[in-house]
Amino acid sequence: MSTALHTDHYELTMLQAALQSGAAYRRTVFEVFARHLPGGRRYGVVAGTGRVLDEIERFRFGDEELTFLREHQVVDEPTLAYLADYRFSGNIYGYREGDLYFPASPIMVVEGTFAEAVVLETIILSILNHDCAIASAASRMSNAAGARPLIEMGSRRTHESAAVAAARAAYIAGFNSTSNLMAGHLYGIPTAGTAAHAFTLLHDSEQEAFEAQIASLGPETTLLVDTYDVAEAVRTAVELAGPKLGAVRIDSGDLAAAAQEVREQLDALGAHHTRILVTSDLDEYAIAALAAAPVDAYGVGTSLVTGSGVPTAALVYKLVARDRATGRLEAVAKRSVGKPSRGGRKYAYRMMDAAGRATTELILTGAHESPENGVPLLHELVREGVVVGREPLSAARERHAAAVATLPQEALHLGRGYAAVPTEFS
Amino acid sequence: MSTALHTDHYELTMLQAALQSGAAYRRTVFEVFARHLPGGRRYGVVAGTGRVLDEIERFRFGDEELTFLREHQVVDEPTLAYLADYRFSGNIYGYREGDLYFPASPIMVVEGTFAEAVVLETIILSILNHDCAIASAASRMSNAAGARPLIEMGSRRTHESAAVAAARAAYIAGFNSTSNLMAGHLYGIPTAGTAAHAFTLLHDSEQEAFEAQIASLGPETTLLVDTYDVAEAVRTAVELAGPKLGAVRIDSGDLAAAAQEVREQLDALGAHHTRILVTSDLDEYAIAALAAAPVDAYGVGTSLVTGSGVPTAALVYKLVARDRATGRLEAVAKRSVGKPSRGGRKYAYRMMDAAGRATTELILTGAHESPENGVPLLHELVREGVVVGREPLSAARERHAAAVATLPQEALHLGRGYAAVPTEFS
Could you tell me the CATH number of the domain that includes residue A274? Predict the structure, then answer.
């Protein structure tokens, strides 16, 4: 199905009025940026760019969409005629997926007529606000987890389609796998999972449940050991699976203390290679608090898919330039109290010091020379309506890890604070 | 596309192990409930039930899904064969959409074999956790707004598909319209919107922009007046549209003070019937604080689609009964520290006093007589695999308004607290 109706009503009424006044065909530049990083975060993570490219290609008004718009009198016939032929034919530049952003970073720049650019506002912001929020939270969790793997398992705590996008964003930001099969199917993300408490409760005893699971999934499986009594379950698990038991999962109680006890018990039983997976309302703070505990992997659900307190990224899509009768692009900006915008087409560079650390997010307006030691951040994504910036998800994941490594140390601090890299305008 | 892969990996590995052990065909009862109401909320709102019914009907493993599962070795061949024929053939009972719920309310009860019931966990929880969270927040906003209409306009702040579900949940809980065209198309919710700041900035002057909008959308339109200077914009707006101007929208600044000034100015200009719409990071608290201001309608975005601090409803899906060799259903419950479950098939009644106020959420286990003055809360939704509980969205919306009217007064208090109606087990 087309995504063209994933659009706010007012985009189309603006289009109608602009078609009638003639302003619809003015060239424009729209820019996606965040005025601030919500939640006192030190940096944001760009995610969703690849999904934006997919959706722009599918953004078409077919019979079904046009019939709805006509029957509900959303717009008039000339506007319907325009929409029937709608194809985005402009250019889009953007920060690459997995890269970092800071306040005012122009993470996406859309150039086209007003008509073709304005109608993309809602779909672009929906995708980027969601995916960047999830990736930004996931990155903090990845930092906190260090080398220990993270499994994304929050599907049940968010909208069914948002869950798939969340798994994708988490993978970019360092998660290793997801429970979500659709994310595996659509994006090739490794999927993982073995059993829930229901499986144990289904059988007449925990022993029967473990026997059934091992018989079917092999001794390398992960057994869930907290349905009744953890110590008894661990004993049963090793008895049945032997020292080749892959892992045990603990999903309740004080996870640090429980992991310590279970590790000692496993070692005493000779199951030195059996790993311990912990789950249960983990977030970046809980993960950090478990750094000294004998935990081998973390499963994260609710806090990941809800952005760990920041479920949306505060990104906006603003008109920053348009041409007028002269045919020259002219900067425009609103002056709304507390929410002013900064006019003009932007260019962005990340300034690096000799040691390869990011020092400044430099934002230039209009024609300029590339600054020395500045890494250009805007890349071509769409050229005259054709997607040219597609890349494999693995590239975004690798880029993210490399980008985090350029941050100053305080950027990894979990407490609230200011952006780790200051934004400067020139 | 089928929703069958909107499923956690472990549902299918459990299925595989249970098919091999034979336990897969045991009759089971799963129950959806919340251990608590997050965020100190006084009540929860049931939403998403209709979407669950739609998705269960579409929950099929076709060639595409089976090929993915086979190629990625998620499950073995006998399990794939089972999934190829998968049709839910059991019964589902639930609270009706728009109704209220409290801690432990069994808002959905799924009866079927373990195999057919367990694989529905993720899709059912995704839908209900999201939609109930949004509806619960929306209901508080509706209470705060009183008779003034609420427009849902948060699409750009959440995942593009979650946005459609959010508009639906908000409508159930009392919102009057949405900006989301897909929600209008799929669910018949009234859509609304006129123009953004970009439209004003596009034109060479605010006057030209207003002229263009009025020429196309008529004087009854809503003009956005805070792009530059509010007083000047209001003067221009009335000058161009005359006293028939439909409304002005204020999107920044101190909304109470701005609304007061604009009302006085409109009245002085003779535009007594021109309404004032306010938007800009409104939530239930901000709406309540504007009760005395001359505001005619509220537009709510971010806080609505993110559940106003509670983006997910903490609902879980637990096995509460299953049969064993005897063929008799037996209650089962886990004993996990801090997260115990309560076994047995539940029945729920809302106990009412003589004045029609809800006094208790009464939850009974197993066979029982219907209590006097108790309104039964569980209704048949699916009978032997066939959906029987579908209803128009308007029914849910009306039910919600009626249900809120039965709550004790303190339920409408916006501060954190305990559930407004206590849950009792018998």
Answer: 3.20.20.70
Q: In this prediction, what percent of chain B has a pLDDT beyond 70?
A: 100
Residue A139 forms part of a structural domain: no
Cα–Cα dist A197/B290, whole Å: 48
Side chain identity, residue B120: L
Give the closest of A9, A114, A199 to B14, CB-based: A199
Residues of chain B neighbouring A254 (CB-CB closer than 8 A)? 337
Distance of CA A69 to the CA centre of its chain: 32
Q: b/e per residue, B23-60, with b = 16+ CB within 10 A?
A: bbebbbbbbbbbbebbbebbbbbbbbbbbbbebbbebe
Could you tell me if B206 lies within 8 Å of chain A, comparing CB atoms?
A: no
Whether residue A42 is found in the same domain as residue A61: yes
Q: Are B411 and B43 in contact (CB under 8 A)?
A: yes
User: For residue A301, which residues of chain B lie inside 8 Å, CB to CB?
Assistant: none
Give the pLDDT of residue A329.
87
pLDDT-based confidence at residue A291 (cuts at 50, 70, 90): very high
Q: DSSP string spanning A223-274? A: EE--SS-HHHHHHHHHHHHGGG--EEEE-SS-HHHHHHHHHHHHHHTT-TT-
User: CA nearest A118 in B: which residue?
Assistant: B198
Query: What's the total number of domains in chain A?
Result: 2
Contact across the interface for A198 and B165, Cβ inside 8 Å = no
Q: Among residues A285, A306, A327, which one ends one of the domains?
A: A306
Residue B357, SS3 per DSSP? coil
- Which residues in chain A have their CB less than 8 angstroms from residue B73's CB? none
* B270 and B332 housed in the same domain: no
Residue in B121, B126, B253 nearest the CB of A163: B126
Query: Is residue A197 less than 8 Å (CB to CB) from chain B?
Result: yes
pLDDT at B327 over 90: no
Mutation target vs A (from B194, B202, B310; most A CBs, 10 A cutoff): B202
Query: Looking at CA atoms only, how far is residue A371 from chain B in angstroms?
Result: 31
Other C-beta atoms closer than 10 Å to the C-beta of B67 total 12
Contacts of B211 in chain A (CB under 8 A): 21
Statement to judge: residues B205 and B316 lie in one domain: no
Same domain, B47 and B24: yes
* Last residue within a domain, chosen from B295, B324, B356: B295
In B40-183, DSSP assigns E strands to: 44-45, 91-94, 100-101, 108-113, 150-152, 177-178
Q: Which domain does A388 fall in, by range?
A: 9-134+310-425
C-alpha to C-alpha distance for A293 and A287, rounded to whole angstroms: 10
Residue B257 touches chain A, beta carbons under 8 Å: no
Q: Is residue B92 in some structural domain?
A: yes
Q: Are residues B272 and B333 in the same domain?
A: no
| Predicted pLDDT of residue A325 | 65
Nearest CA in chain A to B75: A217
Task: Kindly state whether A371 is in contact with chain B, defined as any CB-CB distance less than 8 angstroms.
Answer: no
DSSP secondary structure string, A6-67?
Answer: SSBHHHHHHHHHHHHHSGGGSEEEEEEEESS-GGG-S-EE---HHHHHHHHHT----HHHHH
User: Which chain B residues are within 8 Å of A14, Cβ to Cβ?
Assistant: 194-196, 198-199
Q: What pTM, to 2 d.p., does this model score?
A: 0.97
Q: How far is A325 from B410, CA to CA, in rounded Å?
A: 60
Q: Is A21 on the interface with B (CB under 8 A)?
A: yes
Regarding an ipTM greater than 0.95, the answer is yes
Residue that is written with structure tokens 């990011």 in the block? A358
In a domain, B305, yes or no: no
Q: Do B196 and A14 touch (CB under 8 A)?
A: yes
B156 belongs to a structural domain? no
B288 lies in the same domain as B316? no
